Structure formats: structure tokens, C-alpha cells
């Protein structure tokens, strides 16, 4: 419980914690931010790491000169792209091993082929939208790899989605994060960012439930 409480505290008070990180680690803060974004997008076991909120917080500190926004944009975009590419290839090479047996429930070649067809038809939109949905953005490239979505198709949509995601979240913090009302209610703003991020997934889920009923 204490671990969960600490994580929530870090997540909800990124402004305070990032200030401490910058003070203690200086230029190494860039490397720390790079690794967080890389792991959040690159491995299906780390979807709990902050993404949108971390980018927003980084933007607010760039606005006051504590970090360089241009360096942040290039570095974090590189982390996001490298993360998704790593996740894709893990899924790509893990897929044949996971789906080798025909008689494994939910893990069979029919599901693999179905996933492949889904991503070939809708994959582009999925990859772009997933960038703005916590947890989903961690799993989307992995499933795309398992489904053997064509890599050139995957990376073309991922470049657009990744660039848009980093730009929107980072520059939102840069231009709006230090407005007094935003700064004084930073925790509420973070909650709002998280809520807006998961909204597309919730809407899509409700649409599927409505159609099924």
C-alpha cells in the first residue's frame, strides 16, 4: 500500500518531484526523462509510468528556463519512437512463439491472423489514437508486432502519432503550465489531462458495448 501511495504522490505532484530531480541531477534530468518515456512506450510491463503528465510537467519547467524545450522535444520524440519500435519488434518476434500451438485457447494462429487483418485495415488510426491513451499506447505497438502489421505502414503512422503526442503535451505545458491558475491547481490539471487521455478509449468501449447489446 505504501508503494502505491508513493507512486500516486509522485504522479500527482510531478511539478514538485521534477523540481527536486532538476536540482539534484541537473543535465542528467534529460536522460531520466528519456528513459521514462522509452520504458513507458517500449515495454508492455511498464504501462504505469507517467506519459502525458510527465511531458506537460517537463514543458512547464522548460518555460521557466530550467530545461531546454527544443532539446526536450527532440530527445523525448526519439524516446517515444524508439520505445514503440522496440515494442513492435518484441511483439513481432514473440508472436510466432506465443501462437505456435493451435489448441491454446485465446492464443492460436486464428487470433494472430485476425489481429494482423485488423491492423492492416485499421492499424493506422489505432496507432495514432493510442498515443493519447495511457496503457493502450503501451500495448498497441506490441499487438501490432504480434499481428505482423507491415513495419513500413506501422512506422509511418507512428511517426505522425508520436510527433503529435509529444508536441501537444510538451508545448501545452510550455505555453500554459505557468499560467497562475494552472500552476496553482497543477494536480487538478494533471487529473484533467489523464481524464482527457483515456476518454477516447472509454467512448470506444461504450460504443462496442452499445453495438453488442
Structure description:
- Helices cover about 80% and strands about 0% of the residues.
- The chain has about 210 residues and is an all-alpha fold.
- It has one domain.
- The radius of gyration is 18 Å and the shape is globular.
- The termini are far apart.
The parts where pLDDT drops under 50 for at least 5 residues are none
Q: In the residues, how many domains can be counted?
A: 1
Biggest sheet record = none
Shape estimate = globular
Helix content: over 70%
Number of separate helices = 10
Distance between the termini: 38 Å
Radius of gyration: 18 Å
Order of helices and strands: HHHHHHHHHH
Task: Tell how many strands the DSSP assignment holds.
Answer: 0
Q: Kindly estimate the percentage of residues that lie in beta strands according to DSSP.
A: under 5%
What integer is the average pLDDT?
78
Structural class: mainly alpha
Summarize this entry quickly.
This protein has 213 residues and is mostly helical. The protein has helices at 2-12, 14-25, 28-42, 52-63, 69-98, 109-130, 136-146, 151-176, 180-184, 186-212. It has ten helices and no strands.
Amino acid at each position: 500500500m505504501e508503494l502505491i501511495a508513493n507512486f500516486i504522490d509522485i504522479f500527482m505532484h510531478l511539478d514538485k518531484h521534477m523540481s527536486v530531480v532538476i536540482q539534484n541531477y541537473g543535465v542528467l534530468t534529460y536522460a531520466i526523462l528519456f528513459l521514462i518515456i522509452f520504458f513507458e512506450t517500449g515495454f508492455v510491463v511498464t504501462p504505469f509510468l507517467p506519459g502525458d503528465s510527465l511531458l506537460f510537467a517537463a514543458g512547464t519547467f522548460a518555460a521557466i528556463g530550467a530545461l531546454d524545450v527544443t532539446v526536450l522535444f527532440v530527445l523525448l520524440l526519439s524516446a517515444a519512437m524508439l520505445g514503440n519500435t522496440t515494442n513492435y519488434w518484441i511483439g513481432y518476434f514473440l508472436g510466432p512463439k506465443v501462437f505456435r500451438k493451435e489448441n491454446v485457447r485465446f492464443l492460436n494462429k486464428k487470433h494472430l491472423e485476425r489481429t494482423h487483418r485488423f491492423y492492416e485495415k485499421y492499424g493506422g488510426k489505432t496507432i495514432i489514437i493510442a498515443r493519447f491513451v495511457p496503457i493502450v499506447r503501451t500495448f498497441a505497438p506490441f499487438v501490432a508486432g504480434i499481428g505482423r502489421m507491415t513495419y513500413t505502414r506501422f512506422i509511418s503512422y507512428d511517426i505522425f502519432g508520436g510527433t503529435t503526442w509529444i508536441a501537444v503535451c510538451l508545448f501545452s505545458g510550455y505555453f500554459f503550465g505557468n499560467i497562475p491558475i494552472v500552476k496553482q491547481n497543477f494536480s487538478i490539471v494533471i487529473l484533467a489531462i489523464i481524464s482527457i487521455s483515456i476518454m477516447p478509449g472509454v467512448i470506444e468501449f461504450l460504443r462496442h458495448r452499445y453495438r453488442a447489446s
